[in-house]
Design brief:
It is a single chain. The chain is mostly beta strands. The protein contains no helices and 16 strands. The chain folds into 3 domains: about 60 residues, SH3 type barrels, CATH 2.30.30.30; about 60 residues, Nucleic acid-binding proteins (OB fold (Dihydrolipoamide Acetyltransferase, E2P)); about 60 residues, Beta Barrel (OB fold (Dihydrolipoamide Acetyltransferase, E2P)). Strand 7 and strand 8 form a beta hairpin. It is flat, with a radius of gyration of 21 Å. The protein starts with a strand and ends with a strand.
Length: about 190
């Protein structure tokens, strides 16, 4: 058991029967009344962020979550297949547990969040940035913009559609931010 004094960013806990991680917290001691802690909690199963206020000193059930390295192998009828990087054990995941499905390509390294006591997989996450090759995009014409941030649609080698600047052409390698699904930079 942990109390509100033990709160820190990234701490995982059970709250209302579900698993949450603390995204942000703030201890508040008003002039009148008792102290409390404002938090932003992210649900580990759905990804939804909620806000909650805890009275100071409240006990919560802390949960141990492990991050383990896996490599994406292939997709088939059973789901997405991965291999553990150290034990070479292979597992198959349902589509609901995989985020950004259209950014996965064979050999891609991922991290799985696993409930340590139950050995249950909570989610599968790509690294913050992935590199992809543009397989199709319309040519961008100079002077075709009304502002300096004009974007066009581009299809990458996994089939995902990403909005890129006008100077990107077919065959260019780009880096994509997996958290926002946006173009980040061109790779040389």
């Amino acid at each position: 058991m942990a109390t509100t004094a033990d709160f820190k960013n990234g701490m995982c806990m059970e709250f209302n029967g579900k698993l949450y991680t603390i995204v942000q917290f703030q201890h508040v001691k008003p002039g009148k009344g008792g102290a409390f802690v404002r938090t932003k909690l992210k649900n580990l199963e759905t990804g939804k962020v909620i806000e909650n206020t805890f009275t100071a000193g409240v006990k919560v059930n802390q949960v141990r979550i492990e991050r383990r390295p896996y490599q994406f192998l292939y997709k088939d009828d059973l789901g997405y297949n991965f291999m553990h990087q150290e034990t070479f054990e292979q597992i198959s995941l349902q589509e609901e547990l995989v985020d950004n499905k259209d950014l996965y390509k064979e050999g891609q390294y991922v991290e799985m969040m696993i409930h340590a006591e139950e050995e249950r997989i909570l989610s599968c996450e790509l690294p913050p940035f992935v590199e992809m090759e543009v397989t199709y995009t319309e040519p961008g014409l100079r002077g075709d913009t009304a502002s300096s941030t004009a974007l066009k649609a581009a299809t990458v080698d996994t089939g995902a559609i990403i909005h890129v600047p006008l100077f990107i052409n077919i065959g260019d390698k780009i880096r994509i931010d997996t958290r926002t699904r946006e173009y980040y930079e061109r790779v040389k």
